[in-house]
Every structure is written in structure tokens, then in C-alpha cells.
Specification:
The protein is of the alpha+beta class and 361 residues long. The protein folds into two domains: 28-140, no CATH class; 147-360, Porin. The protein is built from two helices and 16 strands.
């Protein structure tokens, strides 16, 4: 890799890290706003409790006075009932306020994550008015967590540089530009712990789409002539000439690295957050699309955009080697197609990619 390429790679990686950090700060800010909003609502609920209990107490006293006027109870009995109702109101205010104070303290202590894993959507509340006044009832329905989860799943996203190499060829000799030639991968993967009592070795497998794009240089474009595909000089001035192949593949990687074991008594979990990891493996699948996009000016000076979708003799079955090394969710990712880009050609070209990979829980 020459000096310019190294500089470009360094700049791309630096910009990507800066973007990730900015997004993280933005997410933290949004989480704080949400937590503050929930705390504000709880404070309002706490302010309403005393008035609600006073209203219930008035309703009870009114019923007691009606019984007294109807001479169903004596004045002494009425006084005792009023004292008991007042005592109940005081205890209700204390207990209901304590519940809300606990929720506020939980949010202030643990922030958004605590709210996320202890959602009030699982709680059920009901209000009823009967002969004894207003009643507020709470019931909670929570599913018991599985003690140990050996298989989890996550989203896979990767992007970076893309090019080809062949026999006796390096990237400097490539007919494709380094800038503008890139790849994107998006998929869903499962991770299974291989050892019963340790999370050091894991197997990652799933399904993903790979978009490999090549930016053709020197005013050339691909021409398919029967079973042969070749680069030729375009008769007009090309503004852009891009070639893209879309594959659907099954990636499989053996992943190794330390993790943190967390014992919550009712459940056991392993976390690889902020821990080093390395993954080695490969992929195999099928090509589902190939397209060439040309942008040029015709003889009258009109801008023309042409998209041609055909197989271009690209390999229908793709397979290759891939690996990554990183910390937590972010890794440096490389993949190499063992299958040639074009089948049955005099000169073989194999796709090679280098970029960043995110495994998002």
C-alpha cells in the first residue's frame, strides 16, 4: 500500500471514529432528556397524591355525616370513623409518595438503562370507586429471565475500501480507483458460546448482503462480448464509470477474546463490551445482481446517465476468507474473494476489501 493510500485509510478511520463519538454524545444527550422528562412526570404525580387522598377523605366524611344524620350511627362512632379515615389518608400519602420517590431515585441512580430494563409498561394499574371510597391498585407481570443464554443475535454493519488483485498485480496496478471504490455489508448474525463455562471461544454465523463497488479509471468501461468481459475505452468523455456486484452470503467466523462474567443470581450473562476480540473465518453465497453505471456528456453536451443490469459474466457463486480484530462492537475488517470476480476470463480478478465493522447488539 503506497503513502497516499495509507493517508486516505488513516483519514477515513479517523473520521469514522469521530462520527461514532459524536453520535454517542448525541444519544447520551437524548437519553438524559428522556430521563429528565420521566422524573418531571413522576414529580407531578407526587404533587397530585395529597389532593387525591384529600378528595377521598372528603367523600368518606360525607358518607359518615349522612349516616350520622340518618341516626344510623352515634356521634361518638362517627368521630371514630372520621379519625380512622384521616389516619388511612395519611398512610396512603406516605406509601404512595414512597413508591414514586423510589422510582425517581432509581432513575437518578441508574439513568436510561435502568428505565429501559425496568419498564413500567409491564405494570398494570387500576382505579376503582366503591362504598369505601377511591382505591388505587398496582399489579406487576414480569417474565422470569432465562438463567443462561448461550446464543445471542446482533446486527452486522461494515463499510470501507474495495478493489481487486490478480496474478502478478497489486493495488497500484489496479484499473480501479482507490477513492470511490468501496463496499458495504449489512446483515444479521447469531453468536453461540462454544464452551459451557467460558465465553472465550464463540461461533458467529448468519446472513448478510454485500455490495462491492468498483470505480473504473482511465475513461474505461466494461463490455461483455459473449463469454468474455473486458475493459474498453469509452468513445466519449466519461464523468463516472462504476461497477457494482451485490451478493447474498452466509458469513461464519470463529471469534476469540476475553469477556466479563456477570452473575445476577437469577441469571448469568457474559459481556464483551470494551474487550479485545479477533474473528477468523469466511463466507459463501450467491450473486444476486450486477450493474454498471455510466455518466457522460453526449456530442450535444447533454448529461447522460446510463445504468446497465446484466450478469457481465460475473461469478454466480461467491466464497472467500474474512477476519476482523477490534474492541467491543467496533473492529477492523478485511475480506478476500477466493472466487474470481469474472468467471472463465484470461486474467482473473479477485475482490479484496478493508474497512470497519460494527456488531450492534
Amino acid at each position: 500500500m503506497n503513502t497516499i493510500t495509507r493517508i486516505v485509510v488513516y483519514l477515513i478511520i479517523s473520521l469514522t471514529f469521530a462520527t461514532v463519538q459524536a453520535q454517542t454524545k448525541k444519544l447520551d444527550s437524548l437519553r438524559k432528556v428522556e430521563v429528565d422528562f420521566k422524573i418531571s412526570n413522576l414529580q407531578e404525580d407526587k404533587a397530585k397524591i395529597e389532593q387525591q387522598e384529600r378528595d377521598v377523605l372528603k367523600l368518606k366524611i360525607s358518607k359518615i355525616n349522612k349516616k350520622l344524620d340518618a341516626k344510623k350511627i352515634t356521634a361518638e362512632e362517627a368521630e371514630d370513623l372520621k379519625k380512622e379515615a384521616a389516619k388511612t389518608a395519611v398512610f396512603n400519602i406516605e406509601n404512595r409518595t414512597a413508591i414514586i420517590n423510589s422510582k425517581i431515585a432509581l432513575l437518578q441512580r441508574n439513568g436510561y438503562d435502568s428505565w429501559q430494563y425496568r419498564r413500567d409498561e409491564d405494570d398494570r394499574a387500576s382505579i376503582s370507586i366503591g362504598s369505601n371510597g377511591l382505591h388505587l391498585n398496582f399489579s406487576t407481570k414480569k417474565k422470569k429471565p432465562k438463567y443462561d443464554i448461550r446464543t445471542s443475535n446482533k446486527m452486522l454493519f461494515a463499510l470501507g475500501f474495495n478493489n481487486t488483485i490478480g496474478d502478478g498485480q497489486n493495488l497500484d496496478d489496479s484499473p480501479y480507483k482507490l477513492g470511490g471504490s468501496g463496499f458495504v455489508e449489512l446483515g444479521w448474525v447469531w453468536q453461540t458460546r462454544l464452551l459451557k463455562e467460558s465465553n472465550f471461544a464463540r461461533l458467529n454465523y448468519g446472513l448478510s448482503f454485500q455490495w462491492n463497488k468498483l470505480n473504473i479509471k482511465k475513461n474505461q468501461y466494461f463490455v461483455q462480448d459473449g463469454d468474455e468481459t473486458m475493459l474498453q475505452e469509452f468513445p466519449l468523455n466519461l464523468k463516472k464509470a462504476k461497477f457494482r456486484v451485490t451478493n447474498l452470503v452466509i458469513p461464519v467466523h470463529f471469534e476469540f477474546g476475553p469477556s466479563k462474567k456477570r452473575d445476577f443470581k437469577d441469571r448469568l450473562r457474559y459481556s464483551t463490551d470494551e474487550h479485545f476480540k479477533i474473528g477468523l473465518g469466511g463466507y459463501g453465497g450467491v450473486r444476486i445482481a450486477s450493474q454498471q453505471k455510466l455518466i457522460y456528456e453526449d456530442e450535444d453536451g447533454n448529461r447522460v446517465k446510463n445504468k446497465e443490469r446484466r450478469n457481465f459474466n460475473t461469478s454466480n457463486f461467491v466464497y472467500g476468507l474474512s477476519g476482523y480484530i477490534g474492541v467491543g462492537d467496533l473492529s477492523i475488517y478485511a475480506k478476500y474473494d477466493l472466487s474470481p470476480l469474472f468467471k472463465d476470463q484470461a486474467f482473473e480478478q479477485n475482490n479484496i476489501s478493508l474497512g470497519l465493522r460494527w456488531d450492534l447488539d
